[in-house]
């Protein structure tokens, strides 16, 4: 199995919405974004799958050595070998890859986030910086597009947090800022115990509107001249924003279930965005 094949299988097995956006890219850009996604999956899976934090820390430390090796030209892991041909061409910097690892380390250090400012920092490490690198691979030219990518990455991460409240609570983790829980009168123990109250609904409505504000700001930051190049990100925006709508339509019953879109619906949203040049997504999410 070649390094590219390894990354392709990693992406396909994940079932992520990101995979659908990759399908429409030219081969070289597709190989680059698939390798980057595989790197993110590798380090994220460490935190999700390791029951001992000390083991997870050692594995993340090893991935730091792999980033070092990548920029020395002697990477060992198939993901890094697949990524190596693209780092110079698409401007992927070692500090950006380290930032992703730091985001995973934050998951080992924190089970709670006291304020939105603290959670926003985590969102940048977990998704915003990935958005920056992805935008470069897709063909980013102007600085405002990086701002778009950071905002969109934060919107994606907030959508994930909203969707996964129940799953995270079963792991003893609450990403929703404590200041927001206090504001809406929701106790952490209620979330951990799966209590779906009126106060919880109000809390989740607030988080949903926050996520939509980031989608809106992202769309407004994207220059019209770069929309076609950034269609893969807009495909993901169409999928994630539709998921957010479904969660709201279901009444934010995220404590007891994990709401998702069917593969065919994801593909249809991606195809519609690609064919339409992303215009309808920008119009929809800018409102």
Task: Provide an overview of this structure.
The chain has 287 residues and is mostly helical. The protein folds into 2 domains: 1-109, Farnesyl Diphosphate Synthase (Orthogonal Bundle), CATH 1.10.600.10; 112-287, Orthogonal Bundle (Farnesyl Diphosphate Synthase), CATH 1.10.600. The protein has 15 helices and no strands. The protein has helices spanning 3-14, 17-22, 27-49, 53-72, 78-83, 94-109, 116-138, 143-163, 165-170, 178-183, 188-192, 198-221, 231-249, 263-275, 279-286. Helix 8 packs antiparallel against helix 12 (198-221) and helix 8 packs parallel to helix 13 (231-249). The chain is globular, with a radius of gyration of 19 Å. The model has no long low-confidence stretch (mean pLDDT 94).
Summarize the structure.
The protein has about 290 residues and is mainly α. Helices cover about 70% and strands about 0% of the residues.
Q: Report the CATH C-level class of the largest domain.
A: Mainly Alpha
CATH superfamily label of the largest domain? Farnesyl Diphosphate Synthase
Taken as a percent bin, the fraction of beta residues is under 5%
Q: Specify the CATH architecture of the largest domain.
A: Orthogonal Bundle
Low-pLDDT parts are none
Biggest β-sheet, characterized?
none
Distinct helical segment count: 15
Shape by Cα distribution:
globular
> Could you estimate the helical fraction of the residues in percent?
over 70%
How many β-strands, per DSSP? 0
The H-and-E topology, N to C, reads as HHHHHHHHHHHHHHH
In whole angstroms, the N-to-C terminal distance is: 46 Å
Named CATH topology of the largest domain: Farnesyl Diphosphate Synthase
- Rg to the nearest angstrom? 19 Å
Number of domains as seen in the coordinates: 2
Kindly report the average pLDDT value: 94
Structural class label:
mainly alpha
């Amino acid at each position: 199995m070649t390094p590219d094949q390894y990354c392709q299988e990693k992406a396909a097995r994940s079932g992520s919405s990101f995979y659908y956006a990759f399908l429409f890219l030219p081969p070289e850009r597709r190989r680059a974004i698939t390798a980057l996604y595989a790197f993110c999956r590798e380090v994220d899976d460490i935190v999700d799958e390791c029951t001992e934090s000390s083991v997870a820390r050692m594995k993340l430390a090893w991935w730091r050595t792999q980033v070092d090796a990548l920029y020395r030209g002697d990477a060992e892991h198939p993901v890094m070998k697949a990524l190596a041909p693209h780092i110079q061409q698409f401007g992927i910097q070692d500090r950006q890859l380290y930032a992703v690892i730091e985001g995973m380390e934050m998951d080992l250090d924190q089970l709670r986030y006291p304020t939105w400012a603290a959670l926003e920092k985590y969102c940048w490490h977990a998704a915003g910086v990935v958005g920056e690198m992805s935008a470069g691979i897709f063909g980013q030219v102007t600085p405002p597009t990086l701002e778009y990518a950071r905002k969109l990455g934060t919107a994606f991460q907030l959508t994930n947090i909203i969707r996964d409240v129940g799953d995270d609570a079963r792991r003893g983790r609450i990403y929703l800022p404590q200041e927001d829980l206090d504001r809406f009168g929701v106790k952490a123990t209620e979330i951990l115990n799966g209590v779906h109250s009126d106060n919880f609904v109000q809390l989740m409505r607030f988080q949903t509107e926050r996520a939509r504000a980031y989608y809106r700001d992202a769309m407004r930051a994207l220059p019209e001249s770069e929309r076609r190049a950034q269609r893969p990100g807009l495909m993901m925006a169409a999928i994630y924003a539709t998921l957010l709508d479904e969660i709201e339509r279901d009444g934010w019953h995220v404590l007891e279930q994990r709401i998702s879109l069917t593969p065919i619906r994801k593909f249809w949203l991606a195809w519609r965005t690609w064919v339409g040049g992303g215009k309808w997504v920008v119009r929809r999410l800018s409102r």
